[in-house]
Design brief:
alpha+beta; ten-stranded mixed β-sheet; 6 helices; 16% helix; 31% strand
Length: 291
């Protein structure tokens, strides 16, 4: 169970415990409610308190962050993880291409969620801050508790949570940088399509290198639609190399050539700005070995 604390300053003095928890510590209403139901779940200077109590300068306010009773848990699997960063709140991994984030309907336990449960323990509650398609490799963030998950979810697509992808696209771009601003909606099956009735979707792109009719492209999603990067590149005539759904299969690579390469985020507890990098995997690096 995660315990959060804050030292009360003169500015905060006189405010209620609830106000400090919600407005200053950004604890969700649900987490506050769960803490209230536990003896000693909310304390000032070690003593249990109600949320309507006023705080004073110099007080130490603490709250125990517990998961919902019905929070999802996963069967542990003994699968090695490539850990890029870990602390009490975060587990940041390099996901290999071909591994699903969650197991399919067959219930097989070979997904990343199962591997994370094997590492963190079968009672761990695993919150993926964002997902990657099975074929996409690279950086993925797991929040170890609901508080961190909610805080990072709110950060997404702001300056405090910045994701950058590298892709190998087919063809040579006429415009070497720009913005793709095309709305996306659900199509048939798992496909997504460009449609004026869809949700807004924005992707910045920059061509970094090109050779032999393919391009290495940096992609910055400013929204988070399903398959957004794949759909956007296909829509401008440059589908990902190997993208069987929005382009064509190729013997050159066995998956859509997309990699989550860089992440910057502000840690919700420490305030530290984390910068995580993950180099191109070999199946993509073969096309641009100098990168």
């Amino acid at each position: 169970m995660r315990i959060l604390s804050i030292q009360i300053t003169s500015e905060m003095s006189g405010r209620s415990v609830r106000e400090i928890l919600r407005a200053r510590m950004k604890v969700s209403a649900g987490a506050v409610s769960r803490a209230k139901r536990r003896e000693g779940g909310i304390r000032i200077n070690g003593d249990p308190v109600f949320t309507n109590v006023s705080v004073k300068e110099g007080d130490t306010l603490t709250i125990e962050i517990a998961e919902r009773e019905n929070a999802a848990r996963f069967s542990p699997a003994d699968i090695p993880l490539d850990i890029l960063f870990e602390d009490e709140d975060l587990l940041i991994l390099n996901k290999p291409a071909g591994m699903a984030v969650y197991a399919g309907t067959s219930g097989q336990g070979g997904a990343l969620a199962n591997a994370a449960a094997g590492y963190l323990g079968e009672n761990a509650v695993i919150h993926f801050v964002s997902r990657l398609d099975r074929g996409t490799s690279g950086i993925i963030v797991i929040a170890k508790n609901a508080y961190i998950h909610e805080a990072l979810r709110k950060q997404q697509h702001t300056g405090d949570f910045h994701r950058e992808y590298l892709a190998i696209a087919t063809g040579v771009f006429t415009e070497k940088s720009g913005m793709i601003d095309l709305p996306i909606e659900r199509g048939e099956g798992i496909r997504r399509i460009i449609s004026e009735n869809g949700k807004a979707a924005l992707t910045k792109y920059e061509v970094l290198n090109e050779r032999d009719g393919i391009s290495l492209v940096r992609l910055l999603p400013l929204t988070g639609r399903t398959h957004q990067l794949r759909v956007h590149l296909s829509s401008v005539g440059h589908p990902l190399l190997g993208d069987w759904l929005y382009g064509e299969e190729t013997p050159k690579i066995a998956r859509p050539a997309l990699h989550s390469a860089r992440l910057t985020l502000r840690h919700p507890v420490t305030g530290e700005q984390l910068r995580i990098e993950c180099p191109l995997p070999e199946d993509m690096k073969q096309f641009f070995p100098e990168e």
